[in-house]
Write a sequence for this structure.
């Protein structure tokens, strides 16, 4: 590659990063502005007072529960890698998850996901194609688990005689928007998962066809081979019922602890709800809030999560908007705070520079062999 080509490539990467950053910053401003308009009748002082009145002991329990979920996230990720025949101990997998999630709080458009692939390649020599495929598998399990929890919570509310999902759709505009968005994400997740499982069990010969196209167009061969390797890594998990069950069970535990954290936050703010109502409403609010964060419209999902969470709690319970918003803010801030502290510590332990980590995977993928392995 000539100096001119290298300069052009560098300029292209910088331009791409700046474009993602501008879009994410603009999205964050719009989302936060929209949230401000939606809660314009709530006095800021009231929300601050609600946050200040939270029971510190219960909040401490919420922090402990969320911290406890992280080793389980690492174990689940190591199970995903093991299904792809790439071994990693739980400690390194947890560190990789911590660092990548922290990077996603700082880097626009969830580009921090590349950091995890970089860490696993550096620490356990996991190929980049497998690293990104493992992330795809994990995201699909996350979305499927969240959607399942949301459906269980709605069923619980309907059977328990509380406000049902149909009444909520009809009566509360904010909650209706959040539920419809969550339903759209859930439907898309189920569709993608069905396609992956079906294609993994069918001998359609697509991989062979793509490789043949690569031989006809040499300039596309590397990209097509990487795509085939990526798809193959994802599908290999879909062919293993035991792995699906193990990863699915791990996802259920991880997200149950995430929900319990929010339930404890609601309890710390003296919402006045019974335990049953706290569990059902907290589960639905966290599920819909996280599904709302799927689109990278704001940095770290700020605003999207709070808006959906608040709309669901206010629409389903007699809890006031100020308490609901305070709970959403504390819950999201608590989780982001634990993620940030853990990620910074993990990055320091690895001696990792986030700027180097986010550029290295892209540069390395361009010099990968046709088997998707990084050149040594």
């Amino acid at each position: 590659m000539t100096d001119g080509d290298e300069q052009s490539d560098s300029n292209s990467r910088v331009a791409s990063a700046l474009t993602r950053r501008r879009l994410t910053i603009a999205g964050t401003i719009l989302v936060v502005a929209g949230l401000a308009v939606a809660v314009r009748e709530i006095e800021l002082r009231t929300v601050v007072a609600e946050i200040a009145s939270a029971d510190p002991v219960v909040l401490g329990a919420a922090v402990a529960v969320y911290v406890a979920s992280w080793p389980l996230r690492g174990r689940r990720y190591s199970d995903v890698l093991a299904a792809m025949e790439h071994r990693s101990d739980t400690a390194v997998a947890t560190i990789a998850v911590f660092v990548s999630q922290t990077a996603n709080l700082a880097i626009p458009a969830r580009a921090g996901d590349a950091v995890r692939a970089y860490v696993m390649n550096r620490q356990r020599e996991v190929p980049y194609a497998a690293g990104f495929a493992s992330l795809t598998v994990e995201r699909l399990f996350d979305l499927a688990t969240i959607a399942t929890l949301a459906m269980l919570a709605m069923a619980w509310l309907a059977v328990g005689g509380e406000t049902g999902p149909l009444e909520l759709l009809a009566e509360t505009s904010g909650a209706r928007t959040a539920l419809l968005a969550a339903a759209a994400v859930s439907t898309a997740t189920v569709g993608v998962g069905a396609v992956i499982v079906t294609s993994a069990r069918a001998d359609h010969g697509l991989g062979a066809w793509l490789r043949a196209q690569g031989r006809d167009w040499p300039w596309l061969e590397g990209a097509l081979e990487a795509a085939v390797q990526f798809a193959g890594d994802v599908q290999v998990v879909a062919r293993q019922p035991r792995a699906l069950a193990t990863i699915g069970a791990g996802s259920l535990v991880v997200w149950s602890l995430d929900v319990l954290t929010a339930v404890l936050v609601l309890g710390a703010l003296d919402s006045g709800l019974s335990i049953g109502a706290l569990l059902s409403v907290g589960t639905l609010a966290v599920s819909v809030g996280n599904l709302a964060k799927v689109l990278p419209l704001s940095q770290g999902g700020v605003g999207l999560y709070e808006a959906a969470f608040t709309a669901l709690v206010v629409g389903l319970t007699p809890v006031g908007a100020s308490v609901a918003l305070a709970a959403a803010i504390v819950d999201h801030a608590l989780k982001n705070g634990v993620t940030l502290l853990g990620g910074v510590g993990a990055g320091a332990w690895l001696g990792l520079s986030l700027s180097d980590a986010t550029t290295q995977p892209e540069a390395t993928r361009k010099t990968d062999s046709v088997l998707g392995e990084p050149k040594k």
Remarks:
- Residues 198 and 238 are 9 Å apart (CA to CA).
